[in-house]
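for ur thesis appendix - Serine/threonine-protein kinase PknA. copy paste whatever u need, i formatted it the way the template wanted (i think)
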Amino acid sequence: MPRSRLGPLAIESKLGDHPSQSCVWRAIHVQLKKSVAVKVFAAPFGGTPEARAAFAAEWTKLKTISHPAIAKCYGGGFEETDAYLAYELIEGETLESELSRRNRLSWESVLDMAQSIVEALEYLHCQDMVHGALYPDKVIFTGLSPVLVDVRMERHDTPYRTGRPPSPSEVSLLPPEMLTDPAAHSPHSDLYMLGSMMYLSVTGRTPASGDTIEQISASVRTDVPESPASIVLECPVWLDKLIMHLLQKDPAARPHGTAAVKLALAEVRKRSMSRTGVAEHASSGFSPLSVTNQDDRDIARKLLGRDALSLDDNPAQQSVAWHDRPTVLIGGLVLIAAIFAYVLWPLSEDNMRTRAEALINEGTKTSMMHAKNNFLVPMIKRFPDGQHADWAAEQIDQVEMLQAESALEKKLKRNLPLKDEAERLYAEASQFERFGDSATALDQYRSMVTLLGDDPQYKAFVNLARRQIGKIESDGGKDDEASRIIQAKLDQAARLQTQGKVIAARKIWYSVVELYANNDKVAPLVAQAQDRLAENRNDAGSND
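the 3d part is after this line
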């Protein structure tokens, strides 16, 4: 990036899993003092007046998008021969980096991810928009949910686009129709790429293979990928069938739309969690809708496409009484055996703890949520006086703390209102701790425990406060002094100012004023920060 300023933005550093290939930068809006992610596009001579007008219309439309699973666009602009779009800065790990680290995800995690993404796609499709580039680096996990980034109105017929050709791994995730025409993206192509990401996440493999772009492209067009359940045995057959349905080569053969996929995902969760037998699935046909009459069949066909009900519509099968069909007879026997086994051998308390521990040890927020909902809470209900009841209650507290902390972090990053006193007090104490003033943070956490400790609705945040108290005390934080911390920060700001890094210095001065404006004991130091801000007000446009 040849410049350090872009309109009202001060450019800091590159973002992305592969910074050398990225055109996205971390930046600060100087006037608002807000961090953003800015995507920069270089166009010869800045583009034609018509192209600039179209790009301005695009960012105007993008600013209207508001969905919790989609990174917000704040707008865009032009600077000499560059154009840019500024998005909400989402801090977290991308799906690509998580897969690089872990190779693949559990099917439960993939199911959770897919449900969030398909809801984001449903919102976009209702706005007559498609994403068109659903790659693993476009999904960032923040808190407990994934967020979709880099939403565009137009990716191809515009000079303001990424000039980098798709990598082999990206080509392997594309639908066949976009290999022929990259601009042929549609809601059905979004669904195919969702299926590609789910396939990659479940199996650790891409649905197409090859050593060169040409080989991979040929594989995308002609090869039917190996089913996920044959690669990962614990993958439920219902999830396997949905993924393969999404990966149909013909767009018309894929699910009719996001509504159908949402229903199918809900059915996958319901059947998998209730342990419905595979034989029952095979005999009834895979459909997110129960088809009991012609009207229901027509609704299902509309949602899921022509082939969704092929099992029921097969004339050869309809010519045989349903109770005499081999699949029904075999399926009935297997189902009865499965129900018999389920009734006689429910999970014991020890087995429930073993499964919960395995999920907790995965260390992801999604796996911990599954541990809580599917094993810990049921364990306490079934074995309230069991030998592991206390352990289960402790683990539930840990998961709820994680949920509360993640939700608060998301609110603070997005400047959303805090809902209650517990969130406000914990956020305030955390701010002191991040600033380095452990003593004041410790006092704030202790006050929080005293004020809210007896109220069950604040239990998660009170437990978080107790955790931080223990951490600070073990680190010897009780000996910290606010005045010493502030003086050290002021000295740091002075050094930064001398080096010409005025924005970084101003951030420190603003923090001092914001945190300690009402603290009489450090009033002289606060006054110093206020004086420095006043002296440098005219230099607010300076940058690192």
